Amino acid sequence: MSVSDKNAMPGDWRAWASIAVIVVLVMLGMIDRNSINLMIDPIRQTLGIDDFYISFLQGPAFAATFLIGSLAMGWLTDRYSNRWLLYIGVSVWSLATVASGFSDSFVMLAVARGFVGLGESVLQPAGWALVTRLFPAHRLATAIGTLTAGSQLGVAASFLITGFVVSRAGSMPQSSFPLIGPREPWQWVFILTGAPGLLLALLVFMIAEKRNPADGQASVHTAVMPFVKKEWAFLACHFLGFGLLSVLVNGAAAWGPTYLMRTHGMSVQEIGLLLGFVGVPLGIGGVLVAGWLVDRSFKKGQHDAHFRHFAVRSVLVAVLGAIGFTLDQDVWVPLVCFSLIQFIQPFSGVAGAALQVGVPEALRGRISAIFIMFYNAAGLMLGPGLVALVGNWLGKNGLGTALAMNYLILASLAAGLLWTGRRYGQRAYVRYGARRAVAWPQKEA
Fold it and tell me: What pLDDT, on the 0 to 100 scale, is given for residue 310?
């Protein structure tokens, strides 16, 4: 990094203070996104709907606007102030969460959930873009990984906060306040968790937003397709390699608890404690350690570190998953292997950093948004279904083997793609760099 690049960076304290603000917003988003999962039965009873409609509120109602919105936010991130985009996004999903508390029908709640997804779709594109301007290339994996750790903390916090509010509200008769009217306990959860976001959104203006002086050289009409055609091998290895890891993670997350209940007789409470006190801390530690190791290698000149590290990690995941879910006569074998996998597999911080150092600045928002949509869609749509399909094919007791195959096959394929992508990732960094503003070919008139 050149001296001018260093001078363009804010001080360490301000950069990490900005990260802290974004982490708070990420945690807030996870709370507003996931709180519905602990209120399924009360919502179903109040609105008179069945599990199919509940699953729509949990999944498609949120995911459709989140995935489509991610593309739009990538386009906006490349053009407008990322701080203002974050402010608008936080305000939108907070208002929508509050509106969920005033929903008295399935349609109203579904529309509110859609706006929660739309507002939260700004988090990763704008968050990654801001972080990329605050940190040098050899610290990006740790910085973006910290945002991922914030999302995991937010998931844990959503269960704690929702459980507390529901228990307190549930101990009182149906509550009514002026201008609000009578509300059920689950509605109060949405109102009380959404309202703080309207104030916390103002924290975004504490974030340092330093654009490269050369940004103006890149037109707002900078085209994506010429870059995609030129760097298709880099993007293919990156998207498919990390995308397969997303499919793997979502499949294991969807069916792992069921496997422990069916095969080893664990209760829901035991699994909840396991995930809360073992899985979440290991996941947070894993994403931070992964970022630190990649940054350390990158600083030493291994500019393929993002691909190299996760190619090796994918091999370890394949081996551990195959062993843990086949040699599973004793419950401690899958539990130990799963715990190790939880520490090894968190990839989104390193995957995001790989794009920030290998894509021209004028295109980072859009390319990042396409990847965010791709890996989330692939994981959510393919992960649970593949494990279920293989499990059904294998028969009554085939879920453990299906999970073993999920780890072995998908992680092995990911390892091959990421190992192949090393030279393309290194070449992309050499061409564009983490701090180099490149005026990419413009769209023809």
Answer: 96
